Amino acid sequence: MRKETILNACVLLGLLAVPLWALSVDEPFIITLATKAVIFAIAGVGLNFALGLGGLVSLGHAAFFGIGGYTMGILASHAQNYAPLMEWPLVIEGTKSMPVIWLFAVLFSSLAALVIGALSLRTSGVYFIMITLAFGQMLFFFMISWPAYGGEDGLVIYVRNGFPGLNTLDPIQFFGICFAILCIVLFLVSRMARSSFGLALSGARQNEERMQAVGMVPYRLYLIAFTISGAITGLSGALFADLNRFVSPTMFSWQTSGEIMIFIILGGTGRLFGPVVGAAVFILLEHMLGGLSEFWHVYLGAILLGVVLFARGGLIHLVAGREVAHD
Amino acid sequence: MSLVLLIEQVLNGLQFGVMLFLMAAGLTLIFGVMGLINLAHGSFYMIGAFAAAATAAATGSFLLALAASLVAAAVAGAIVEMTVIRRLYNRDHLDQVLATFALILIFSEGTRWLFGSFPLFLDIPDYLAGPISLPFGIQYPQYRLAIIAVGLVVAGGLFALIAKTRIGIQIRAGESDREMIAALGVDISNLYTFVFALGAALAGIAGALIGAIQSVQVGMGEPVLILAFVVIVIGGIGSIKGALLGALLVGLTDTLAGFLLPNAFGLVMDPAAASAVGSSLASMSIYVLMAGVLLFRPTGLFGSS
Amino acid sequence: MKLKFLALVTALTSVASLAQADVKVGMITTLSGGGAGLGIDVRDGFMLAIKQSGRDDIEVVIEDDQRKPDIAVQLADRMIQSEKVDVLTGIIWSNLAMAVVPSALAQGKFYLSPNAGPSQLAGKGCHKNYFNVAWQNDNLHEAGGAHANSTGYNNTFVLAPNYPAGKDALTGFKRVYEGGLSGELYTKLGQKDYASEIAQIRASGADSVYFFLPGGMGISFLKQYADSGLELPLVGPAFSFDQGILQAVGDAALGVANTSQWSKDTANPTNEAFVASFQAEYGRLPSLYASQGFDTANLLISAAGSADVADGDAFQAALKAADFASTRGDFAFAGNNHPIQDIYVREVIKEGDIYTNKIVSTALEDHSNAYVSDCSM
Fold first, then answer.
1. pLDDT the model gives residue A110
2. Domain ranges of chain C
3. pLDDT digits 0-9 by tens, A275-327
4. Residue B173: its pLDDT value, please?
């Protein structure tokens, strides 16, 4: 086995072991932190599909994260107030069922990604970074001033949504759900990366002309990748909303987009487990540095800077060495 | 809605645009010459404002405060360039985004550590305080007219610097062919430090000028940074001319949309609702403008593809 | 995140600690980033009261929410799940309070609000274990309306940021104000340039301006308004005139009327002692946020002295009695556990080099809030 494969397995086991240990010593907050890391990891895996595989640097993925979150918030708030979303022409009720919410979160965020991607992919390079940022900001300002669903106050969901057969209020069971989703997403993404689509996408990133020469349309490849990427990030947004039982426009802010990107770079761009490592380390840093001083952002900044300057290729690169291929 | 009010709003939009240009000029120069995305550019804006406030408090002189903002931002820019930024020129945009994002964290919390959590005081000098009467009975603050003037002078100076001087030739050469300029014996790393410090100084003086009419506080740079990015993307990254046009477009769009949209909705709704809906749409207007421009010109108005 | 302040151990074995169980308090407030000034004041006021009480049975755990609702929610989870606190307090912003408070109450905790008072928690969402020690969000704006009435303004221009608290503010003002409006504007949240709004005020023919623009927005507005040459009287709530930001506004704020439930010169012995001891302890004048933190802690101390926090009903009744000396003078809770108090009109003055406020009149006496009848508990 390659070093990186072993490392990946260790990361997953570690992510699983920490909350189990926390359960045994009755520290439920650590389970919550681990759940947050897993959810952020899913968001990062989503962005990494566009960024690592397709080379699409999107600074607007908070848009999909937020759409996923608000899908949960809006559906669940209608359900908790017993007010249908729509009464005409057909009655649509809200729902408190996680699987249904996930389905809609994926649906809406992929639709949004399709539209935003279709427009943004007309540009490239820095312009692409900035136009995705612009779309994210548009949605951010819209959500702040749109009064129907709480505006800046956001929406509070009093009880976590349900999953058949499980008690989602129990931190460890909710962690289990999120962890399972992360594993499924990782599996699907690695399959897609090795499929002919994934290989073509990688090819387009490395050499667009060659792909055109063999009859591929890079725009279409990029758009599919961007849509899938948005859908995964949207799903993580719905989970994040359920973790907090709360959604607010901060989910749409450009700092959120920046944080998702940090997970990837911290862990290692283009590596399957890059965002997983990055998210876990980021949460760990945030938790530990916060206790050091009121001015802990200074330390966080210094560490991030150190990683970029001296640990090229991210933390996985430090441990596992040079990237062989995306697997 | 009278014509006078509309003219006043156009002046406001112009003033906002000129200020944005000071921010955007540095950003676009740095990108054009070194190919670097600098998210920390807003921090120089903040450093300029804090240096000005501290100097004004110590000396009572506004001109000294402005000078201090230029010097502080330029020095901070030069130090950051030599210690950090220099290592990022050959990296991809992703690394640059993360590294300069990290710099924002360090600068913001560092400033709070030095100056405390409360906003600082910086005021307009007496000789520029109060309004002035313009034709058509318009009362307009002198200080804002002064900002427009200073901005236009700086813009003119920048164009002259780039078109006429030796260093301007080097900058233009650096934009088009980096290997060539090094081969010509120009010390490229000095040139880069100069350009970076120049950009930082422009942001610093913008921060000081605006700090006098707004609040000098930690985090003041980020909203302006995002707007400055919108400006240079609309104008075409690397183009000073584009930055000027983009800045004026964004300034006018933001101001006029904020003014006209609520009024337009007021024709069909009650005033409270119209103001709420109108200002919601107005806050999205510049991003709509930017997306629109990029759809028709994917490299901005003056960008080269 | 483990800034733990353990209350000082008293040498005396006082009557107060007579077999009472310890009270553990979780304070979630904003200590870093742009809005840190408010949270620091609340924390300092709160800890001053704890220190002065000399009680060793009240433990306070303090955490920084960075003004992010999701962080606040996670901190609340942690305090409830891991730290096992009995009482939560500290939140500054309404949107964070709405994210944290309902679920904390549902888990059987007490919440004492030192600042935010969203209408949802005063009306239908009121709760017997939720006590607001500051004000209901509309209160200071209602006082602004009352002040406008008594001064005889009848063509006021009103403006506030376009977010829920901004809309509540203008609703509160209009609830009491009897004159006409010459204009009503909602500005972008976080906006720093008000040239456009000031031009519209000038053109509107207003006889006065009521504005709600907290923090940096207010600083910017006041400076630009003073420079515009407009002479119309300004009225606003205390949030743009607190001790922390007045120094940044400077002369532009001089003489401006603002409404507040507290002032440095509120005449009562508790307040005089508070102002002096706060200045001695921290080397700066207290703000209204500090006074709210101080009162919140004293309410808690009074309840902990007469009831056991493990006995929910008794502790609730002890809190409701509000048997403590407030820096505001008379203080009682209305039916929905929000304050009944006087609200004053203050004016900004300069004392030596320091800008501060002095009370000029009382806008509303023993003022409660508009949501009492919506609350059934």
1. 97
2. 3-135+266-333, 139-260+343-374
3. 999 999 999 988 888 777 777 888 889 988 998 888 877 888 888 776 554 44
4. 78
Q: Which of B94, B226, B284 sits opposite A57 (nearest CB)?
A: B94
Please give the single-letter amino acid code of residue A258: G
**3-class SS at C132?**
strand
What 8-state DSSP symbol labels residue A52? I
User: Is some CB atom of chain B closer than 8 A to the CB atom of A125?
Assistant: yes
φ/ψ (deg, to 5) at A148? -60, -40
> What residue ranges of chain A have pLDDT lower than 50?
325-327
Which residues of C lie inside 8 Å of A (Cβ-Cβ)? 1-3, 31-32, 64, 68-70, 73-74, 77-78, 81-82, 94-95, 98-99, 102-103, 106, 118, 162-165, 167, 188-189
Asked if residue A326 belongs to a domain, the reply is: no
The mean per-residue pLDDT over the stretch C29-40 comes to 82
For residue C21, the model assigns a pLDDT of 58
- Is the domain B9-296 a CATH 1.10.3470 member? yes
Q: What is the model's pLDDT at position C6? A: 37
How open is the CA angle A61-A63-A66, to the nearest 5 degrees?
Answer: 115
Contact B121 C34 (CB under 8 A): no
Give the CATH H-level superfamily of domain C139-260+343-374: Response regulator (3.40.50.2300)
Q: Which range is least confidently modeled, B147-161, C32-46, C275-289, C351-365?
A: C32-46
| Other CB atoms within 10 Å distance of the CB of residue C162 | 27
Tell me how far apart the alpha carbons of residues C376 and C161 are, in angstroms, rounded to a whole number: 31
Complete DSSP assignment for C115-170: S---HHHHTTT--TTEEESS--TTHHHHHHHHHHHHHT--EEEEEEESSHHHHHHH
Q: To which residue do tokens 């240009």 refer? A: B21
**Euclidean distance between the first and final Cα of chain A, in Å?**
13
Judging contacts by C-beta atoms under 8 Å, the chain C residues touching residue B263 are: none
Who contacts C86 (Cβ-Cβ below 8 Å, separation ≥6)? Answer: C23, C24, C25, C109, C110, C309, C310
Q: What is the pLDDT of residues B74-129, one digit of tens each?
A: 999 999 999 999 999 888 888 888 899 899 999 998 998 898 877 888 888 989 88
Count CB atoms within 10 A of the CB of residue C3.
16
Residue A327 forms part of a structural domain? no
**What pLDDT score does C17 carry?**
41
Question: Which partners does chain A have (≥3 C-beta pairs < 8 Å)?
Answer: B, C
The DSSP code for A249 is G
C3-135+266-333 placed in CATH 1.10.260.40: no
H-helix or E-strand spanning residue A101: helix A98-120
Does A237 fall in a domain?
Answer: yes
Contact A154 C164 (CB under 8 A): no
Would you say the C-alpha torsion A23, A26, A27, A28 has a positive or negative sign? positive
CA distance A143 to chain B (A): 9
